[in-house]
Amino acid sequence: MQLPETESPSQNISTHPSLGPRVPRIAIVGAGFVGSTTAFALMMSGMAAEIVLIDRDSRRAEGHVNDLRDAEVFSHATRIFVGDFSDCCSADVTVVTAGVSQSGQKSRIEGLRDTGAILHGLVSDICLQNPPGILLIASNPVDVLTFAAWRWSGLPASRVIGSGTSLDTSRFRRRFAEHYGIASSNVHAYVIGEHGDSQIPVLSSARVAGLPLAELSQELRLPHEESSLARIASKTRTAGGDIIQAKGATYYGIAAALVRIIRAILRDERAILTVSSRVAESMQLGEVSLSLPSIVDRHGIARVLPVALNPSEQRALEASAEVVRGHIASLSQTIPI
Ligand code: NAD
């Protein structure tokens, strides 16, 4: 089937008489740095048959759509168009990246009220159009907004997923890989908790080839220095801020993380990813969303797994939950959650 010749992608292609809907469809709400880069990464992956970009600035969204269409011949046939919330109706996943720009912000929390108000205004619209869909939240502060979006959406917690510490975990694994001179795909280590300053890089249960880090260092004849591990953890924590200071925003890493999560959903992978979701009562962390290793499949989060933590990591997880709970309470002073 051929796309209509159009330089006006705001024409609603999903209701074009000669074009039936294609699956899978991914809707992206917010066509800024993160949304447009996610659309590009998704297109390059070949996984989506349709990508809908939705933004209150429709001119910007149209510009991105026309630019992305120029990449189609070199990549994968993908129907990509500007839409509105009605186009979320058949989306397998709706990715929310709407928010305020990261440049000029000192922390992820600074835009809390503004981005909270934006998401409050759109989450129920998305879910009214697509009650069986999955919401994937990237807007920051992602844990607070994942919790709030779950409340506003009326969806089961398993279908409101935050990108959480998936990006931090990738930063952590890459730094380990560089430190030990091995492939990052072979590092089994997680960053859990808040996607923010209180995140916990779990060192005690990090493994490579089944080996704890001290044994790995011994095998590789490298010194096992606590200071090197602490530096890896600290560089992981500050990585986002360092990039923002240098270029004003981060988007390649988060786009790749979002596409990885979408892949786990579309392909029913049951992949273990550190994504954010409402934490079960049994974990005794209170009413909060944060990241723990989670099994992600076609229906969203199939299961959240416990991580083996030493006592100080356990205390840090409790403190991280308290930080996120505090931000949820602060947002709920202006917007009902
Ligand atoms: P950006 O300013 O480039 O883009 C935001 C877009 O949202 C803009 O195009 C704006 O028009 C749109 N928007 C605002 N309100 C809207 C509404 N009501 N409906 C539709 N669209 C709306 O910002 P960005 O750099 O793309 O960042 C977007 C969000 O992603 C921010 O909250 C940022 O902090 C977050 N982020 C998260 C991670 C992560 O790891 N979770 C990483 C990077 C950025």
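^ nicotinamide-adenine-dinucleotide complex. The radius of gyration is 20 Å. The first strand starts at residue 25 and ends at 29.
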